[in-house]
Design a protein that fits this description.
Two copies of one chain form a homodimer. By secondary structure, chain A is mostly helical. Chain A has three domains: 2-133, Alpha Horseshoe (MgtE N-terminal fold), CATH 1.25.60.10; 146-248, CBS-domain (Roll), CATH 3.10.580.10; 278-448, Tetracycline Repressor, domain 2 (Orthogonal Bundle). In chain A, 68% of the residues lie in helices and 6% in strands. A three-stranded mixed sheet of chain A has the order 1-2-3. In chain A, helix 15 (217-226) links the parallel strand 4 and strand 5. In chain A, helix 17 (278-305) packs parallel to helix 23 and helix 19 (320-344) runs antiparallel to helix 20. The longest helix of chain A is centred in the last third of the chain and has 31 residues, at 352-382. The first copy, chain A, is elongated. Chains A and B meet through helix 1, helix 3, helix 12, helix 13 and helix 15 of A and helix 1, helix 3, helix 12, helix 13 and helix 15 of B.
């Protein structure tokens, strides 16, 4: 439904662009939510994007569009725009989004823009730029409502009517002491419910979840999700309130991290490349296949060593695919469970040995089941007991080693703080391929005495 | 950090349980957030879970814990609990969570519980149970604030002080006409900012995003994420407001859907099985490996057909792993990009041909690069021009077919409304294995004239 609507929008905008129906186009563009326009932009050429962008009248809408665009699309679009126009748009945007966008630009250009911005705004942005991108500090908004604990509900409401009009998420009111330290939280809801003269300290919650500026964004997201809150306050080393992370950013973090994990595991980088050109996509995907290529070449040299056995019993080769396939598939199962389990908190990196042992047991059980099945087929086809047994044993060996490697590698990487998703995919698959082929030929040549 | 804290919590609770330090344990349990307790529960035995559960004094905390537990843990825990105690807890929980929990129980037991609940509550729950689990109706909460457009800001605030005290997300005030149809929305923030005597119709937003009760939950989640809203109103066929879907549920949907997609693609069902026993996990993973097993057996019969060629040139077998591996890996890349692209809305199912064509081009380019590389290694090793060429061609063929199949299959399934994630993983891998092996032997036997 949602996608259908966008599809219709894209098609009508394209048609109107071809026809040059500027008036009609202008009407549609200015009626459409910037989030939907960003989807349309993905399907347009750069010159079409520029024409459409110039038609947007509302400067705030231009800002929302900026923050919704892919990095490359954004950079292409602003190439050649006047700095003054850019600054005008950025000044109407939330500070955290501005910091994100400027972080994408070459340092020199970012500095030129900062110099032209209003002092207050640029100071806030520069402050945010100091934090690492993927930490609480890097994703927080510095706009929040902080009041003293002696303020009454009535005074708090009055202050909302005069100040804080640009606060993005005005549902929580944070209470700070004279040093700016976070001491409590209250909600807009509570303000209107209590008698007007009650001071905040009488009805605020003192048990506030807060995070430090350097906490990893995924951890921050997990806290917001776990406690079902709409925003979490961010504090500095001295527990002074410096910003908040809002739930809409948390959703983006989860979606982006899930996409990153999925793509990394498949060996296609960590960004969605489908919108890039064929050549660009090929370049990104090329190196990830190299592990698999090297693995294949190693397997080829291993099999080469068994050439004389192969020339005596040629049908040995017929079982290579099934043994590799079974190992590869159970290895993918194990590593996927581990990577996703670690990401969602279902598995803990400290439980490494119990998880690996469990996977090994599962690999052994499933290996016995499929080893028996595939070994029987081999025996039935060639009526050779030793061949059937070799194949069965090779399947058991390949599947249990695969489950072991598939769980141990990502667990081990997570333990030494390397992203387990990167380590999985191609690396694990390749290792399993080599081990499977080698153990198969060792078992078969030994049992068949060739 | 977060996981460390939980780890410490789990360890101290286990230690105290062993020591039987009931008083101390009771203090910890009643100080810990139910969301954290649910993590602890995962690592405890059933009898330990029961002991801990009985120590919780706050009935609402028991309710939060219920909704955080895994399905199996929940069912085990309430086995043998008195219906009266259960009802007491359920009555303090949000209606949508109650409906979720009752949906997990056998119908008879659910009915017994509904009969014992307060009339109002059970009517609301029964109403929710009528909607499909994974639709807007199934995940909405029926508690929201709906006011007439003639109500003034002051009256609205007064009504908040008297009624609607149990509303979960009191940040949006929905405005309905005399028939209960949704006509506008306002926020608590606006209420306190406008002059008190202003009627809602003068400051409400009439351009409200809303969803129908039967909309798929993923679509609902995408709308909330796209427009950065905290809740979306749900309307029935007659556009009457019947509930809202809140942002905390949206986060859960995204996380669950991402996990489901990842697990399905790896062929491990659609639920996280790691917390289940070894035998249970093995049973769930067994059937998903069957496709790969059948594919392997087919490949084995295909290679069997070329037995006479193999016995003449045994080292033909040495290239099977690298050709299968390259095809398998690029196939995984393509299908992952398609599945995740469709899930995040980056790809549209109607663009099937342009996506598949692009993937085929990438497969061809990468196939040429790696074909040249692997073909050269083959030529260098055996000094046979025809063998090098065969291997190179087989790599090109395997990689381009794999990119084609890997993108076409999930796109095609999505087109006919079958979940593309299920169709991917084992099915695509197996198809690619068979095609790779077959085309390799066809090319090699033709070019080498054997």
């Amino acid at each position: 439904m949602q996608t259908d609507r966008n599809r219709i929008l894209v098609e009508s905008i394209r048609r109107l662009l071809r026809r040059g129906a500027t008036t009609h186009l202008g009407k549609i563009v200015n009626k459409t939510h910037a989030a939907d326009l960003s989807v349309v932009f993905r399907s347009l050429s750069l010159s079409q994007q520029r024409r459409l962008f110039d038609m947007i009248k509302d400067i705030e809408q231009k800002g929302v569009l900026f923050s919704e665009l892919d990095k490359d699309t954004f950079l292409d679009l602003i190439e050649g725009m006047k700095v003054e126009d850019l600054v005008e748009i950025l000044e109407r945007m939330p500070t955290d989004d501005v910091a994100d966008l400027l972080g994408r630009l070459p340092e020199e250009k970012a500095q030129t823009i900062l110099d032209k911005m209003k002092k207050d705004d640029s100071a806030e942005v520069e402050h945010l730029l100091r934090y690492e991108d993927d930490t609480a500090g890097g994703i927080m908004v510095p706009d929040f409502i902080a009041l003293s604990e002696h303020v009454t509900a009535r005074e708090a409401i009055e202050s909302l009517q005069k100040e804080h009009l640009d606060v993005e998420m005005p549902f929580y009111l944070y209470v700070v002491d004279e040093y700016g330290k976070l001491v409590g939280v209250s909600s807009l809801r509570q303000l209107v419910v209590v008698p007007p003269e009650t001071p905040l300290k009488d009805f605020m919650t003192t048990d506030v979840f807060s995070v430090q500026t350097d906490m990893d964004q995924e951890e921050v997201a997990k806290i917001v999700a776990r406690y079902d809150i709409l925003a979490v306050p961010v504090v500095d080393d001295a527990h002074r309130l410096v910003g908040i992370v809002t739930v809409d950013d948390v959703i983006d973090i989860f979606r982006r991290e899930a996409t990153e994990d999925i793509l990394k595991m498949a060996g296609v980088g960590d960004e969605f490349v489908e919108t890039k050109s064929v050549l660009k996509s090929s370049r990104i995907r090329l190196p990830w296949l190299f592990a698999s290529c090297m693995g294949g070449i190693i397997a080829f040299f291993i099999i080469g060593k068994f050439e004389s056995s192969l020339s005596r019993i040629a049908y040995l080769a017929a079982f290579i695919p099934v043994i590799m396939g079974m190992g590869g598939n159970i290895g993918t199962q194990s590593s996927t469970i581990v990577v996703r389990g670690l990401a969602t908190g279902r598995l803990n990196v400290r439980d490494i040995w119990s998880v690996v042992f469990k996977e090994l047991s599962i690999g052994l059980i499933l290996g016995l089941v499929y080893g028996l099945l595939i070994g029987s087929v081999a025996h039935f086809r060639y009526s050779m007991y030793a061949l059937g047994l070799s194949v069965a044993l090779a399947v058991v060996c390949s599947m249990s080693v695969a489950a072991l490697v598939g769980s141990l590698v990502p667990m081990g990487f997570a333990r030494i703080n390397i992203d387990p998703a990167v380590a999985t995919g191609p690396l694990v698959t390749t290792a399993i391929d080599i081990i499977s082929v080698f153990s198969y030929f060792m078992i078969a040549t030994t049992l068949l005495g060739i």
